[in-house]
Amino acid sequence: MSSDATTAVPTATVTDVPGPPGPLGQEPTPHGLGTSLPQADSRAKAEGTFPYASDLWAEGLLWAAILRSPHPHARIVSVDTSAAVAMPGVRAVVTAADVPGAATYGRRVADRPVFASDLVRHHGEALAAVAADHPDTARLAAAAIAVEYEVLEPVTDPEKAFAAEPLHPDGNLIRHIPLRFGDPEAAGEVVVEGLYRIGRQDPAPIGAEAGLAVPRPDGGVELYTASTDPHTDRDLAAACFGLLPEQVKLVVTGVPGATGDREDPGFQIPLGLLALRTGCPVKLTATREESFLGHAHRHPTLLRYRHHADAEGRLVKVEAQILLDGGAYADSSSESLAAAVAFACGPYVVPHAFVEGWAVRTNNPPSGHVRGEGAMQVCAAYEAQMDKLAAKLGVDPAELRMRNVMATGDLLPTGQTVTCPAPVAELLSAVRDFPLPPLPKDTPEGEWLLPGGPEGAGEPGAVRRGVGYALGMVHMLGAEGTDEVSTATVRVADGAATVICSAVDTGSGFATLARQIVQETLGIDEVHVAPVDTDQPPAGPAAHGRHTWVSGGAVERAAKMVRTQLLQPLAHKFGMSTELLQITDGKITSYDGVLSTTVTEAMDGKELWATAQCRPHPTEPLDDAGQGDAFVGLAFCAIRAVVDVDVELGAVRVVEMAVAQDVGRILNPAQLATRIEAGVTQGVGAALTENLRTARGLVRHPDFTGYALPTSLDAPDVRIVKLVEERDVVAPFGAKPASAVPVVTSPAAVAAAVRAATGRPVNRLPIRPQAAVAAPNA
Fold first, then answer.
1. H-assigned helices in 624-692
2. What are the counts of helices (DSSP H) followed by strands (DSSP E) for the chain?
3. pLDDT at 733 over 90
4. Which segments carry the region annotation Disordered (predicted)?
């Protein structure tokens, strides 16, 4: 293949798309931190011209298909690819025997095979991949591969995984965390217990998971995918290809958004193997079924709780057992378990806590990183316990929570002091005091507001309204000693600035934030963000708000270094320090008005650039007693949910979600509101509809007819009643992540409101109709 074979590949420079010029007299586009600067790619996405990964094309393109196991657990007796190889148009077939490098991969633990070779451990596991000159030919060839299985009994109950035969050479136990905090003999006057189950939520990326692999003349390969962690994915792929990392280049292209790991390496690695084998570009666009079967989901979780409180409702001790179903492979289960155990008591002061946490392997679909992992599951449980405690004491649920809320200076059950702002009481007061929405009218015109939608089967007389509260918390950045670091370069030339940083904008608005930082620091309106690839220094994964903090911090430092380069000659000329100069609206002025010039004049045709890193303060792993300073920072949220429940049919309509959130600092008001609204809606899906169902390990209905995402009609009225701007002094700009904590908190709030309406305990998410039918005498 010629050296210019990749020139036809679009690289989706989406951050450089200019908006249309406004009409004469229109206010100038806002810029700088604190303004609602629109995302540069928003118009292209709205008009359908944005180049997604599934739009990629290259000359001489071949198409890929993957053969997947129909069984959740089986021994592979034989694999016969001869029929597939003999089909006209088939260019290559690869199996486990054709992997030249590492046979297994994993972002956290390398325990997942590229292709199953001896055992199949979950439904949909990859066994082989085919490259052909037409997508239909590739799919037919994959189906023609003859695999003989010895079907084995699947282990699908995580509680039985402890005593079951090992499903993996590493065993069935991924991690055990025993947390010990305080006096085990402590007891309260009032005790409540509960058993809770959280279902398997899928990240459900709307855009198709797709990619393109293009071989290089030097024996390497280029991967074009919507990766959220390009350098890690590059390194994993290179190890499996038997190549050095510098021989593999990953170009991030066409990211439509992500609420978890966007593109699983299980899609990328077969692509690269086929491209290297054929010497041709190879494209794969996963079907919706393949996405459901292949990528990681939220951990299904079983939780047992016992809360002790005194007669006034103040918490004395929390005891909990938390069991995460990691599915067939470890992935991020260890990190998810750490969050679940550390936040098992919620944002409350608990003098004594004893928590046992386990993550285990089963033959269920793999679990992994989904927004708010670990924290969301325990939030649903501890908030249900707070409702039980309030009911037993005869105390208002909001008041009971207020008596126990955490504040700055309190201790987590891990022994870590909460040093960041923790305005939990202020958040709870805001949602509690916000006016309730009006009751629906009992008229034909208002029937569409009833649970069940337009022309639903319910009767207005069977509808009851419920109000519920929930408080949630998440950690920021990685945890337990993760080395969080990001690098960014800012270059200024010809009146425009360019930001080079490999932080992937998955919908978090990082590209917009980077533009705002440079505008604010350098007074330059025209700021471009370069496309992301692995030729740039690493910036880490797009998770836990880390790009706002770490990558944004790196951009800020680089921009300030360029600012110093720009101002030093002027300061020296006028005999003053650079601190006495300011840049506003493209003009440089001194404190005394002696100096006044434009940034363009000061540049005088020069090119300035600087590269900087940002690395937060270190953390440490939890020890054998679950103790340690494991988290860089925390964010908090309070939500009041109002629901209408048809107590005869069990149908639930979320009327309103009132949200108060600890945001540190508002960097982009419009983007922040959108992130909160999206997080709440995702949480409502987890509460009411989203559950990837399995039967003995087999995924049932892996499509959007069987997996119900909330639609625009299901989305509640989200009222952002308060945003607390108490800056975290150790965070760049003082900002906190915005989208994860409403995802964590909203399912618990919806469940609390359904409990209030029906009198039922509601101990399972998503809430099934039979659980929303009113209890007798309720």
1. 669-688
2. 16, 31
3. no
4. 1-45
